[in-house]
Specification:
Layout lengths: L3 H12 L15 H13 L8 H11 L17 H18 L2 E8 L2 E8 L7 E8 L8 H19 L7 E7 L7 H13 L2 E8 L12 E4 L5 H11 L6 E4 L5 H7 L4 E5 L23 H19 L25
Parallel strand pairs: 3-4, 3-5, 5-8, 6-7
Antiparallel strand pairs: 1-2, 2-4, 6-8
Length: 333
C-alpha cells in the first residue's frame, strides 16, 4: 500500500494545472463570462498545463529532498540501488497516470523505462520524449533530474490532450553517464523492430539560467526539427530565445546514429550559462531554476502536442549541416 506522502505526490502529478473554476454566467456581456472564456482559450494550449509545483514535487524525490513511501531517499542515481529506486518511482507515477509501462532490460545492471500512450485512432506512428535517469553518484538535480522531471510532467499534461493522431512514447534511459549505454541499446532495438518513430525529443540539463534570459539551446535538430521548434515557439507565444548548436554526447546522438530524427534541449552549455555544479555533489534541488525548467518543458510539450495532432508547421527549408553551428560535448564520459 502506498504511503500518504507518495499518494500526495502522485495526486499532485495527476491534477496540477488541470482544474478549471466553474463560474456561473451572469449575462451575455458579462466581464465574468468573458474572463472565463479567455481562460478556457488559454488552457486549450496543452503546455498551459505544465505546473511548477508539480515539477518541484517530482524533482524533490529524484534529487533526494523528499522520501519514497518506504522513507528512503534517492541520494544518488549512479549506483544500481539508486537507479532501481528511481525506476520504481517512475513506474508507480506512470501507472497512476494511466500509462502502460515497459521495463527494457538490456544487460545485468542496465534497464530503461518506457511507457506508451496510444492515439484514439489506430496508427503505427510514434513520437518519443526521453531523458536519462542516472547520475554520477550524486543528487544529479540538473544532470539529469531536470530532464527526467520535464519528461514526466509532459507525460502528465499530454495524457489529457484530445484528438491525438500519433502515439506517444516516454522513456528514461539508463547508464547515460557511462557512454549513452541505455539509449544506444533502446535505439538499436527499436530500429530492429522497425518501429515508426517520427521524432525523438531529449532533454539533458535544463535547470540552470543564471542570467535569466531563458535561452534554450536546441542541439543537433535533425530534419525539419529546428524549423519546427522555431515555429511552435512563435505560434504558441512562448517567446523563448533559441540557439541552434552542435552539442553531442547525450542521448539524442544514439537515436540519430540509428537514423531516427532527433533533437536535444539544453541550458546554455555552449553559451556559457550552465550549472557550475556539473558532476559535483552540489548538484542539488536548491540549485534548480524552476521557472526556466517550466519554460523548457512547455516548449517541448507544445512541439510534441502540435506534432501529435499533425498541426501544419513551418514551410520546409533546406537542411543546414550541424557542423556550421557551435558545439562541444555535453558530457565527458
Amino acid at each position: 500500500m502506498q504511503s500518504r506522502v507518495f499518494a500526495t505526490v502522485l495526486a499532485g502529478l495527476m491534477v496540477a494545472g488541470c482544474m478549471v473554476s466553474r463560474v456561473a454566467p451572469v449575462g451575455p456581456d458579462s466581464s465574468v463570462q468573458q474572463l472565463a472564456a479567455s481562460r478556457t482559450n488559454r488552457l486549450q494550449r496543452p503546455e498551459d498545463g505544465v505546473d511548477i509545483a508539480s515539477l518541484k514535487r517530482t524533482m524533490a524525490i529524484l534529487a533526494g529532498t523528499s522520501a519514497l513511501p518506504s522513507g528512503t531517499l534517492i541520494n544518488e542515481r549512479g549506483g544500481t540501488a539508486g537507479r532501481e529506486l528511481t525506476r520504481q518511482f517512475l513506474i508507480n507515477s506512470l501507472q497512476e497516470l494511466g500509462y502502460t509501462v515497459e521495463r527494457h532490460k538490456y544487460r545485468t545492471n542496465g534497464e530503461n523505462i518506457v511507457a506508451r500512450l496510444m492515439a484514439p485512432t489506430q496508427t503505427d506512428e510514434y513520437i518519443l520524449m526521453g531523458a536519462h535517469m542516472d547520475s554520477v553518484s550524486n543528487h544529479g538535480a540538473d544532470d539529469d533530474g531536470s530532464g527526467s522531471t520535464a519528461v514526466l510532467e509532459a507525460a502528465r499534461v499530454l495524457k489529457a490532450m484530445p484528438d491525438r493522431k500519433v502515439n506517444l512514447m516516454v522513456a528514461w534511459f539508463d547508464e547515460e553517464e557511462l557512454g549513452l549505454v541505455g539509449s544506444k541499446y533502446l535505439a538499436k532495438e527499436y530500429k530492429k523492430q522497425g518501429l515508426n518513430i517520427t521524432s525523438v525529443h531529449c532533454i539533458d540539463m535544463l535547470g540552470y539560467d543564471n542570467d535569466g534570459d531563458r535561452r534554450v539551446e536546441v542541439a543537433r535538430p535533425e530534419g525539419d526539427l529546428w524549423e519546427t521548434y522555431q515555429h511552435v515557439n512563435e505560434t504558441h507565444g512562448l517567446k523563448l530565445p533559441l540557439s541552434r548548436v552542435n552539442t553531442g554526447s547525450s542521448d539524442h546522438v544514439s537515436w540519430a546514429n540509428e537514423g531516427f530524427k532527433s533533437v536535444l534541449l539544453c541550458e546554455e552549455w555552449n553559451g556559457g550559462d550552465t550549472t557550475p555544479h556539473y558532476h559535483r555533489k552540489t548538484d542539488t534541488y536548491e540549485t534548480i531554476n524552476f521557472d526556466f525548467l517550466a519554460a523548457g518543458t512547455k516548449l517541448m510539450t507544445a512541439v510534441v502536442a502540435d506534432l501529435s495532432q499533425k498541426v501544419k508547421g513551418a514551410a520546409p527549408q533546406p537542411f543546414v549541416p550541424h557542423t556550421r553551428f557551435p558545439g562541444k560535448d555535453l558530457h565527458c564520459h
